[in-house]
Every structure is written in C-alpha cells, then in structure tokens.
Design brief:
Number of strands: 7
Largest sheet: 5 strands, antiparallel
Strand order of the largest sheet: 1-4-5-6-7
Radius of gyration: 29 Å
Structural class: alpha+beta
Oligomer: single chain
Length: 197
C-alpha cells in the first residue's frame, strides 16, 4: 500500500495535536505543583509566626519570674509590664548566601505581662488554674498569677503589617525553698485579645 503526501499530512496533524495535548497536561500539572509548594510554604510561615508568639508569651512569664526574684517582695513585682524580645532567624545576605542567625529587623516581638498576688481561698472558681489553686495549702507559700500575652508583629518600613498573639497563664508558688510553677497553660490568645500597641 502506498502512502501519499495527503496521508502523511494527516498523520503530522494528529501528532501535532497529541503533542500539544500532552504539553497542556504537563503545564497544568506543573502549575498545580508550584501552587501546592507555595501553599505549603505559606502554611509553614504561619506556623512559625504562631510558634514565635507562643514563645514570646512564655518568655514573658520567665521575665516576670526574674522580676519577682529580683524584687524579693512579690507585692512590689505586681502590676503590668511590657518586655521587648529579640527575634533571631536565618537571614539571606545575598541571593546564594544565608547567614546562620541574625536579629530579624522585619519582626517585632514583645510580651505584655500582668503579675498579681492571689489567695488560694479567694481564687475565682471559673478562672484558669482554679483546680490547682484550690489544692495549695495556706502555709505552702505565696501564690502569684502571671498572665502573659506574646505578640509578634510583621514590620515593613516601620509599619505594622499584621500581628499574631498567644497567651500563657501560670500560677507561681513562692515557697520558702524556692519558686515553683504549679500551673501552666499556653495557647492562642482568646478572641477579642488586645491589638498590638
């Protein structure tokens, strides 16, 4: 059987359509893969911001412990304070070079901390840590409630481009032989938490 020029042109047209179809399918698959990577990267960045906010809140509690121990008198350490916290991470110094760690200039972190002396007998039943506070005996030591709100703000040119908050509540028992945390709860800040100041 002889093939004519007309038969060959029909075959070439079918091969061209098949090649274009395969190219389209591969392009769609490639675009979907790139989009998936972008979503994963953004999700990881959001998780990192939440973890940094939680660490800022926990650092605020530790700062408060240091203030209480330095003051000697828990009553003088009571009140509200704000602690600035440095945030460090990998920094790109050139397109191909990443420093191991440096202070991040585009992230501002701080903790707003409230320290208040509380009595186990008068502790509100609906407050966080009430079950633990009720178990503290009258002669066990002085009880302090430390509430810390960690805030991470993304900065650009001195302007705040959004912030994330986390909260830690701790009960600190000041015993004669040293301080002890008897309650510790960390998590996201409750709805309606104060905005970054």
């Amino acid at each position: 059987m002889k093939t004519t020029a007309r038969d060959k042109s029909k075959n070439c047209g079918a091969a061209l359509l098949l090649a274009l179809g395969m190219l389209t399918i591969l392009s769609v698959l490639g675009a979907a893969y790139v989009l998936s990577l972008q979503i994963d990267t953004e999700s990881a960045a959001l998780r990192l911001i939440k973890v940094r906010a939680a660490h800022a809140a926990e650092a605020g509690v530790q700062y408060a412990l240091g203030e209480v121990l330095r003051a000697g008198d828990p009553a003088s350490a009571a009140g509200e304070r704000r602690y600035e916290i440095g945030v460090y991470g990998p920094v790109r110094t050139s397109p191909r070079t990443i420093e191991m760690t440096a202070r991040l200039t585009n992230v501002k972190a701080y903790a707003r901390v409230t320290v208040e002396p509380v009595s186990a007998a008068d502790y509100p039943a609906d407050a966080e840590g009430a079950a633990v506070a009720a178990k503290v005996g009258p002669g066990a030591g002085r009880l302090l409630r430390v509430t810390s709100e960690g805030v991470i703000a993304r900065m650009d040119g001195g302007r705040n481009h959004g912030s994330t908050t986390a909260r830690t509540v701790a009960l600190l028992l000041l015993r004669p032989d040293g301080p002890q945390f008897v309650y510790w709860n960390s998590g996201p800040a409750p709805a309606g938490a104060s905005k970054a100041r």
